[in-house]
Fold these 3 entries.
Entry 1:
Amino acid sequence: MSAPTVYDVAERSGVSIATVSRVYRNPDSVRAQTRDRVLEAARALGYVPSGNARGLASRTTGVLGLCFPDYADPDAETDAEAEAEADDSAVMLYSDQIIRGMERAARRHGYALLIAASLVGGPESLVAKVAGRVDGFAVLAKTVPTEDLEVISRRLPVVMLAGPREIDHLDHIEVANSDGERELARHLIRDHGLRSLAFVGGDRESPDAQARFRGYQEACREAGLPVTDEPDLRAEMMTQAEGVRATDALLDRAAGRERPGAILFANDQMAIGALHALERRGLRVPEDIAVTGFDGIPLSRIVRPSLTTVRQPMRRLGEEAVELLVRRLANPTRDPVSLMLPVSVARRASCGCG
Amino acid sequence: MSAPTVYDVAERSGVSIATVSRVYRNPDSVRAQTRDRVLEAARALGYVPSGNARGLASRTTGVLGLCFPDYADPDAETDAEAEAEADDSAVMLYSDQIIRGMERAARRHGYALLIAASLVGGPESLVAKVAGRVDGFAVLAKTVPTEDLEVISRRLPVVMLAGPREIDHLDHIEVANSDGERELARHLIRDHGLRSLAFVGGDRESPDAQARFRGYQEACREAGLPVTDEPDLRAEMMTQAEGVRATDALLDRAAGRERPGAILFANDQMAIGALHALERRGLRVPEDIAVTGFDGIPLSRIVRPSLTTVRQPMRRLGEEAVELLVRRLANPTRDPVSLMLPVSVARRASCGCG
DNA sequence: TTGAAAGCGCTAACAG
DNA sequence: CTGTTAGCGCTTTCAA
């Protein structure tokens, strides 16, 4: 009634369970004749080796993991335009690209990939579930309580992605947020001659958003423009809806005074919201005002005007993560590594380059 | 030196291993005071429950799986335009969307998702690896030898996606290929008044491609147009390059005679190849000739002219797959289900609707 | 080349 | 509420 085991296969083929095991693990160590008998019995019984038992006995799983936050933009989801008319396509998120990258790389190394997003009100520690079933895993910043990570990373290779290292003995990969935004702001200032900029940031706790703001500040400083200590506005979740609100707030605030020549958003989603808001107000982009994002999500090139942004190499992030994990698995004591992946500015229509 | 176990935690906190286990499995069944002692010990030791041991003892994993083919379009990959300039964005594939859908749905049900693509020359049976580590899994058609599936599905819930059922006791979900293509052809005939159509199909073994051709035939029949037994042309892999070749072949063949008013391709990739080929020949789409695809990949709306196509609900496919798996897990003996998901025609520029 | 036996770390009755 | 006791199905020495 229950699933067949090595014992069943062994019995049916007249060998010991050790031999059955060998057939699956290292076929060449078994006489061809014996092997065939075993395989035949296995087939007849519908035998499938238990990954759990294997893992338990051998202390490896052949699986790498990824924990990522539930990044779904709720606005994009409920939006009839995005959901009903749904090309899911446009809504591809970071996590999807990281997954792609990791899956590819993992496959090359003979690993499968276990993915799990932190469910918002998740009861059980997401990470524990993953951690218990993989040989090593990557974590997107802010997905898992540092405290948990602290404990787990003592027993298992962990690589932190796209955030500050937080725990100093971990491998870690980040993206050149600051460089990218500085580059972008420079472009606006130097190539488009804009001198009145506004920056819409994210949560103060978001290292990415903060780094981007720093890049913006640097560009302003270089150009001799006024440098603000804080973004002109902050948004918690950095969603499209917040982009709309931020834009309205900024423009209302500027009413009467001179309107900024460009608004730089800490991510694409907000910038796209801004595009909508501006259109509603009858302002033309980029003629009346330039808009930029950050991330290079697919939607950014589909919206009209197409969005000038900074592309993050998310897929590569995933690939590098796997490389780091594999390398650490091979050599658990090597020193922690910290990588910074370069980004590139995508000059498109929303800044006037289209 | 090695990872701490329940025994270590039990000893350090002065309880039995059973209590430690309870703390993780059902915290409320342990007195708060005891629980805290255990948790503290666990923290101190860096204890992480072994998923393998848990799975082995409880006979469940809390993980669902997905096996998908290595779908990368080699043409799209090597293409400098797609790889170097790389917005991965445009290259999002079915599998990515299915993964999205499954991950979401799995999460809702408290499952994590294990994904594995069949590596081309893969040694070990991909599916065995997955099968041994999950409570149930979905398989994209043509990914796994039917023979293996036959064996495995006797022990584990399996749902077949986007293909023929192949094994009759499996749950299975397909997409209304035939309906979609019929709808599309009708639109061309009725709304655009086209009466001379050509169809470029795929491999005779591809059920999807065949079903699409049938839909095309039906529309022709309804409209009193000549009905061919075979597609005007077939392509093995249905890549862009083949789309180019097919288009050239078709047009060369028609040289002198009347050129078809529209070419319907069995998928988007070929249709996009056709767009290139036609441009090269100086033919305008849709004025001189209409072109349609099938799938609704992201690229289809980005190309110029944007491609009229039939959108497949890939994400929903993933969601439904999880629902089916969960339901079968709850009731292993219920009759196999077969779902057909509806598709929708996306009328865009390449047929003259843009 | 094959077999015997001892775990791997946890859950699941069943007692208490 | 907590402890005892068997396994779960496989890998892995160590012998034969």
Entry 2:
Amino acid sequence: MSQRSRQIPEATVARLPVYLRSLAELVDEKTSTVSSERLAEMAGVNAAKVRKDLSYLGSYGTRGVGYDVEYLLFQMSRELGLTHDWPVAIVGAGNLGSALANYGGFTQRGFPVVAMFDSDRQKVDNLIHGVRVFHTDDLASTASKLGVGIGVIATPASAAQDAADKLVAGGVGSILNFAPTVISVPEGVSLRKVDLALELQILSFYQEHRESSE
Amino acid sequence: MSQRSRQIPEATVARLPVYLRSLAELVDEKTSTVSSERLAEMAGVNAAKVRKDLSYLGSYGTRGVGYDVEYLLFQMSRELGLTHDWPVAIVGAGNLGSALANYGGFTQRGFPVVAMFDSDRQKVDNLIHGVRVFHTDDLASTASKLGVGIGVIATPASAAQDAADKLVAGGVGSILNFAPTVISVPEGVSLRKVDLALELQILSFYQEHRESSE
DNA sequence: GTGATCTTGTGAATACAAGCACTAGCGTCG
DNA sequence: CGACGCTAGTGCTTGTATTCACAAGATCAC
Ligand SMILES: NC(=O)c1ccc[n+]([C@@H]2O[C@H](COP(=O)([O-])OP(=O)(O)OC[C@H]3O[C@@H](n4cnc5c(N)ncnc54)[C@H](O)[C@@H]3O)[C@@H](O)[C@H]2O)c1
Ligand SMILES: NC(=O)c1ccc[n+]([C@@H]2O[C@H](COP(=O)([O-])OP(=O)(O)OC[C@H]3O[C@@H](n4cnc5c(N)ncnc54)[C@H](O)[C@@H]3O)[C@@H](O)[C@H]2O)c1
């Protein structure tokens, strides 16, 4: 019984960070307890969902009172694996890659960018916001040596699968893909994507359908 | 019966752009027909799902043969509302906003950036990649005048709700939010978000849980 | 203490999505 | 021209997520 195998649903996992941010705001404004209703309002979901989501973490609330903000924040950070840093590597030192490296929000939230990689030798050994650019030939070995946990792909679409393969070879277990293409990774590696064109097209769909029914 | 009210499920809508991209690749390589299986492989989903998704658009396939690539591409573009451009406005002319404006991928896919807005008077009247920056005081009127359909929020989190309100006031029906905060919009306005920190935290969760069970 | 009032935690109901497995229709080959 | 192979379309099953609604526990006032 060493393993608490209470399996947390995917949809819940995706909401935990939103609650986390809300809790951080509450700490800032020195609120010590919060009800599921208040939290729901802040996170933009309904209260029953908040309670069910939080119940997967354990029974950290108090009936009649609510949740202790700091305690819940701590438990949630622990569950999300945010009690320690996750070194991040960015593949592709172009516009997007540089913008991401320059963005302080990463390091600040426990995701320090420890290396960048590019296939363009002109860019190798450059420093971008203090982060050194390595050649992609050395990706696997360097990522492995630096203990990179999360890889960010910011290459053109055509190079994305290759970048993913190299990251996996370097022992990276999680990949965030910004290139507008589907990439595949072996089982046991997490993959998420951020695709602007896709988001805009989804918006376009709903807008089109709304307008045509007016 | 002027309205074909075949309601397309949200999950399907979110996949259509992925199919669309696959179809565009097939056109490039001069493939004229494609089976659900091939398309499924390209889009990274299973074949039954492809068939069901496409069936919401109509019966555009031919049994025993597959789908005509160009015809399906056209029908899907039409359904997604991509047969005409959607003017986009970006609020927040900082690092992210400028990067987005500089990125050609938008205009190229039918989402021309027609205006940017910022509250910083230093930035007003600047041209960023040929796009003029307006003051946020004029947001609603300018957006309305330019017929902006989609608004992109790239301001600090604290200004995001205000930006959304102004966009809505300007008649913008769809909003893509990059600020790491929950914003609310009136019914009838579509809202999607892109949140990097959130994505990283989700990856962190799975990585943490994988490692602890090894 | 007892009753009134909160608010959590959760079983049960409902809604939504995924996937299987079969049927129907097209094309081709013998 | 009939049989066979291929592939779209879809009813049905299964799984997952959301939401409701209420019992159980906590606090407070008196
Ligand atoms: N810039 C944006 O605002 C933006 C927005 C949305 C999506 N994207 C996507 O992000 C990706 C990067 O965009 P960008 O604007 O930074 O492009 P970019 O051309 O500025 O940068 C791409 C970088 O990747 C490098 N590269 C090429 N092949 C490589 C390989 N095999 N291995 C490693 N590095 C390689 C290039 O040398 C270059 O430095 C693209 O897929 C783009 O579609 C960008
Ligand atoms: N830069 C990145 O790589 C990155 C990555 C992820 C998320 N983000 C998020 O995107 C947002 C913008 O990031 P950034 O790096 O561009 O920040 P930034 O500070 O460079 O730019 C913010 C811009 O918004 C403007 N602004 C401030 N208040 C405003 C208001 N009320 N109305 C209109 N404009 C206003 C500022 O003048 C500034 O030009 C932030 O919320 C950030 O968290 C950025």
Entry 3:
Amino acid sequence: MSQGWSVKGDEEQQLLGERIAERLRGLIAQGVLLPGEKLPSEPELAARLGVSRPTLRSAVSELVADLVLERRRGVGTFVRQAAPLLQTGLERLVGTGDTIRQLGMKPGVADLSVEHRRPPEHVAARLGLTAATGAECVRIQRVRTADGRPVMSCDEWIPERVLPDPTHLDDLGEHESVYERLAEAGLAVRLASTSIVPCLPDTDLRRKLELPPQTPILVLRQLHFASNSADHPVLYSENSYNSERIELTAVRRG
Amino acid sequence: MSQGWSVKGDEEQQLLGERIAERLRGLIAQGVLLPGEKLPSEPELAARLGVSRPTLRSAVSELVADLVLERRRGVGTFVRQAAPLLQTGLERLVGTGDTIRQLGMKPGVADLSVEHRRPPEHVAARLGLTAATGAECVRIQRVRTADGRPVMSCDEWIPERVLPDPTHLDDLGEHESVYERLAEAGLAVRLASTSIVPCLPDTDLRRKLELPPQTPILVLRQLHFASNSADHPVLYSENSYNSERIELTAVRRG
DNA sequence: GAGTGGTCTAGACCACCAG
DNA sequence: TGGTGGTCTAGACCACTCC
């Protein structure tokens, strides 16, 4: 360990604690910090990195949650022996394209369609839409591929009333992220309430996902909320995963 | 809103922020704070509850994550219109009995069996067991019921070498929690790495869970780590859920 | 401009672990 | 006994929202 760890004053976009966490990840990846090695004490490390102890602790907590570091009370903080590879974590909300990229594959899209229509009742109910408030939605359907092979089928509904203008998504490109387009409209998605159900696909879906017969899949039903959208959800999606090609994982804490 | 909100000095077990969160939940449940109502500002609320602002913020953040409260920068913090009922959240690791109790049902157990044997290869691999280090495990199988009806089938493996003595779990009672027994042995489970896969049950499992034919289920494969067990997992479990009776949910953050 | 949540700091006190 | 992580406090400054 040497000097020059300071990280403040770089990009002012991210939270300071997250930038510190990235810096520590980098030190481990580069071999500056070796597996099993003990880190300096928290006050000392905070001073070296030029941040306060609470900020350093938030960074360390993130790495502990990701199984990269390990804390032992009264002893110290250590680099874990086998730092695990990150998987498709359910606890983090990321765009599908980024998810596929994280797995080291190249994302693509097939069968994109954008239309305007009223959603079926179970979708309208979740979105809180009634005929009085206007139930018209933008519906986006597409199949996502990884390295050219289909991995999931997406069915997304966005109420027109949350958009700055109803045509905001009509020109969505094949490689564009709905999340990014919503963010441009001031509707950055921050939270999704998700329910996970197993399902036997119908023949149409089986063809789209190239599934053999009698293969159950996972369906994620997600209700998305933006940071400034009060109680109104901005997006409902049903994503059907080919679970032979993408594994869903979660880290649970007690 | 009135005085008498102070909560400090009660049980010193939980984190202060969590006790504050519980108190706020209570105020909402009792109707002291109504849906849509604006809370006092953070500095004022912190003063009323007798805690610092960072502590109050940790409590509020927990309720925001649970969709109970909602923050609007520059405006205030509000009680959400439809405070959702809590479901089986994937992000939190809780014992099965507690999960069923949270859903308002009465937990029970059927077909309990405890045996000692070597695990199949895929289990041994996940637990990091080799013949050299000793692969012998305690295996616990049982069907969990809610209000008398089967909701999940559990298959749990604990390496004998992590237990204080190999017979530590042999007398597990029908209504006992494996987590609690491990905690008694100084192996409190803090973290589980989980993978979620859909599955078509075989006839035996279908009978146990009272499932109709052609009904896919969810299987959670979980590798559990204790707080002080360094890199060694202490428990591997495969839980098969009757997803018509228990819904798996998760809150994802961006 | 007044009030709000968002962030970060500095420092205190404690419980735990090792020598 | 000394060093470590675990927790909580007090207060600062900022960006945002609304009047």
